[in-house]
Amino acid sequence: MAAEMALIKPVSKFSPRIGNPRIPVGRRFSTVRMSSTAAPSPAKPKKSQKQEIQETLLTPRFYTTDFDEMEQLFNTQINKNLNMDEFEALLQEFKTDFNQTHFVRNKEFKEAADKIDGPLRQIFVEFLERSCTAEFSGFLLYKELGRRLKKTNPVVAEIFSLMSRDEARHAGFLNKGLSDFNLALDLGFLTKARKYTFFKPKFIFYATYLSEKIGYWRYITIYRHLKENPEYQCYPIFKYFENWCQDENRHGDFFSALMKAQPQFLNDWKAKLWARFFCLSVYVTMYLNDCQRTAFYEGIGLDTKEFDMHVIIETNRTTARIFPAVLDVENPEFKRKLDRMVEINEKLLAVGETDDIPLVKNLKRIPLIAALASELLAAYLMKPIESGSVDFADFEPQLVY
Ligand SMILES: [Fe+2]
Ligand SMILES: [Fe+2]
């Protein structure tokens, strides 16, 4: 998994307070327990784990699912749609392990990190930290699926385990990147202390498919941009994105195969509504998140909104191959709606920063939340694009004469 995903809800400001910027680089090394928490301070009383994890609605999430239902879905005795030849072929591809020797660091990393200072340094750390959390989230989910499906479907289980290998590698590489900034994410702590969001298997499929594909498009777009504009190549991690994103692409293709094996999740009106909902959720989350962090994208020479729209359009085109309906993101009205959501979100954030008492803040938020909800609904109700290429005729009961 590479991208962040959260259900659409009004958002609060994500304000990382990592380390102390006043302490010179090289004289501090902190273990970060969660994005939006301060590095532990000996002067303050020790907080409980629960207090230290401050989830925000746009923070990358950890997921769990109904593993019993998953076992049913991948039982070849029950589900005759499972194309085991296709899964065997995918397994061989994962076993080849194309990126086994790809993630090797060199001294350029630390040297580059030491040259990044000012506000960009802070935002860079946040990028590494959020990306690491998102990758690690994929690792945890795939590892558990690999473990739980071992008996029912060893081939699918092994693919999940190999995908968790990839995600562990990605998360580890990003965490090593944090060490260049004298920080490290405490992944063991996160595993135990973070809340897990429960999604039924069908929602896990929609969400992870989109997450992998949007991750692919984000990584490859940044890679190509920096290849053409090397003057913005301020940290070597981006040079690894070309091969890295191929992992995400393979992960997405595996979820595509999984969904084809579960045609009930793709071929009815409910599937169309959910497919559009998940597309909207993922796109809006990314857009609002990134518009709060334009300094990062501008720091590497990108226009945040242009970058996001490119990623959204490409992801949507890819997704249209498998989802039964997608949003008409190429209609200019869709972007106009996203931009209005950004404006409303900025006003919401501004309310949070005033000195008003909580009651007044909440009263001020009500019309803004209503406006955001109305934009979301309007975007959801825009005329969708009917899509999907699965040949469902093969799965439908045939008349026998
Ligand atoms: Fe990944
Ligand atoms: Fe992935």
UniProtKB/TrEMBL annotation:
The protein's required cofactors: Fe cation
Any GO molecular function: metal ion binding
A cellular component annotation (GO) from this entry: chloroplast thylakoid membrane
InterPro entries in the record: AcsF, Ferritin-like_SF, Rr_diiron-bd_dom
Superkingdom of origin: Eukaryota
Catalytic activity, reaction form: Mg-protoporphyrin IX 13-monomethyl ester + 3 NADPH + 3 O2 + 2 H(+) = 3,8-divinyl protochlorophyllide a + 3 NADP(+) + 5 H2O
Enzyme nomenclature, EC number: 1.14.13.81
Pfam families, A to Z: Rubrerythrin (PF02915)
GO biological process terms held by the UniProt record: chlorophyll biosynthetic process; photosynthesis
Pathway: Porphyrin-containing compound metabolism; chlorophyll biosynthesis
Keywords: Chlorophyll biosynthesis, Iron, Metal-binding, NADP, Oxidoreductase, Photosynthesis
Rubrerythrin diiron-binding domain residues: 126-259
Annotated stretches, region: Disordered: 17-52
Record-linked PANTHER family: MAGNESIUM-PROTOPORPHYRIN IX MONOMETHYL ESTER [OXIDATIVE] CYCLASE, CHLOROPLASTIC (PTHR31053:SF2)
Family: Belongs to the AcsF family.
Protein name: magnesium-protoporphyrin IX monomethyl ester (oxidative) cyclase
